[in-house]
Structures are given as C-alpha cells and as structure tokens.
Amino acid sequence: MATQLKRNSKYSEAEWTARQELAACYRIFAMMGWDEMIFNHITVKLPDEDGSYLINPYGMHFSEVTASSLIKIDIDGNKVDADNPWHVNKAGFVQHSLFHRALPDAHAIIHTHTTATMAVCSLEGGLQPTNFYACNYMGQIAYHDFEGITVREEEGERLLEHLGDKRILMLKNHGPVVMGRTLPEAFIKYWALQRACEIQLATMSMGKPVLIGDDVVKVHQRDLYQAQIPGGAGKAEFDAMVRKVDKIDTSWRD
C-alpha cells in the first residue's frame, strides 16, 4: 500500500496499518461500484489483539469510510470502541464473527450484494466453467441454501458444515462470502470472482455457453501461479487500486 500518513496515536502501529488498509478497501469497492447503499461488510482481524476485528460503521456509505471511523468489535460482536457513535449491523457480525472465530486463516472476509454475484448465487448450478476467471474457482467454491437474513447464530453450524475446507461460500439467492489470509488476497479473490460472474451473466444472456472441460480447468489452475507477481497474493493489484483511490480522495487515510 502507498506511504501512510502519520499514525493516529490512539492506536497501535499494527492496528493503524490494518485500519488504513481496510478503509482503502472500502473506498476501492465504492470506486468499483461494488457497494450496496449502507449495507454489506468487509472485516479484518486485528493482528495484535486476539479476538478483535474491524468492521464498517452501520449507516456509513463505503465511500465515506475512514481509518478512524472503522469500529473495533470483539469476537462476540461487542463494540470495543466505546467512544465510536456508530452502530454495527447484526447481519454483519453474526456471520463474520463465526468465520473469524472458527477459521484461523480467515483473516479478511468480504460479503457483498453485487448484481453479478447475486445473480450467479441465484442460478441453478451456480458458477460454471464458462470463462477464464471461472476456471480459477472450479472445485473451490461451496454453496449454502438460503435461510433468510443472517442474524441467527444457530445457522452457523450449517454455514461451517457447507463451507468445509473451501474459502469462498456462495450463499444461494443471497451473495458470496470470500475469505483470505490477508486483505489483499481476499480482494483479488473477490475481484476475479466478480469478473467471472459478470462474464457468465453476459455469456448466458446471449445463448448457450461453451463449457470448459475438467482437464483444461486442472491445467489452468496448475499454471495460475506463473502469472502471479511476487510479494504476496493480491498485494500488487491492491496497491494499484489504492493509488487510483488516492487520485480521487485521500480522506480514507484519516
């Protein structure tokens, strides 16, 4: 990520870095049109506080989020920032806290309601091997039947059961949940999934898609690493998007 401004002394260096990175991600989503009014969530575990993570203030648009306005909550959804006047959306922390608690590698979690991803989540068969980006995910996506708004903790057992060892969960008739070991990794996984869904939506609107065979999908997935830039999954791509955001508005850094 680009050079940071002076750290807010209220927070540790690790927390301020996490806050700036997450605030930047919210601004990227707004810039890309992946926002949904004041809804949806991107959360990140705090590296220096076990059981705490950051979430967006409920009522604030993604394009308004700043590093200091993000809310720190514990694994049970209780606000740690007592002086933060904003609320937390229960539909956000119930689902996100479940995965953060149960999955040590789920450092960052993204849940959205974009038209393309919701459409594919609402399609019989879900994501299909119809394009380059979709091939990234064949055999790597889990599905969970729609049970209504995700505010009931008792649904958690089924969510985890259906997720299994995957780290992308398509909530049928709802939307995707994308997890990553880092926020840039979750971002690039989400970006490619969004593109896969957009292209599938466009292709199916024209007629019967050409499906890619399992043998070619395996070769595609085997060779993906050769197109990756050193520095960690998604880091170069995320940093490039941060630079684009900075050309629009740098207030997310505050």
Summarize the structure in words.
By secondary structure, this protein is an alpha+beta fold. It has one domain (13-249): Class II aldolase/adducin N-terminal domain (L-fuculose-1-phosphate Aldolase, 3-Layer(aba) Sandwich). It contains eight helices and seven strands. It has helices at residues 13-32, 90-102, 115-121, 132-135, 156-163, 183-206, 214-223, 235-248; strands at 41-45, 52-55, 71-74, 108-111, 142-144, 168-171, 175-180. It has a seven-stranded mixed sheet with strand order 3-2-1-4-7-6-5, sandwiched between helices. The longest helix is centred in the C-terminal third of the chain and has 24 residues, at 183-206. The protein starts with 12 loop residues before the first helix and ends in a 6-residue tail after the last helix. The model has no long low-confidence stretch (mean pLDDT 92).
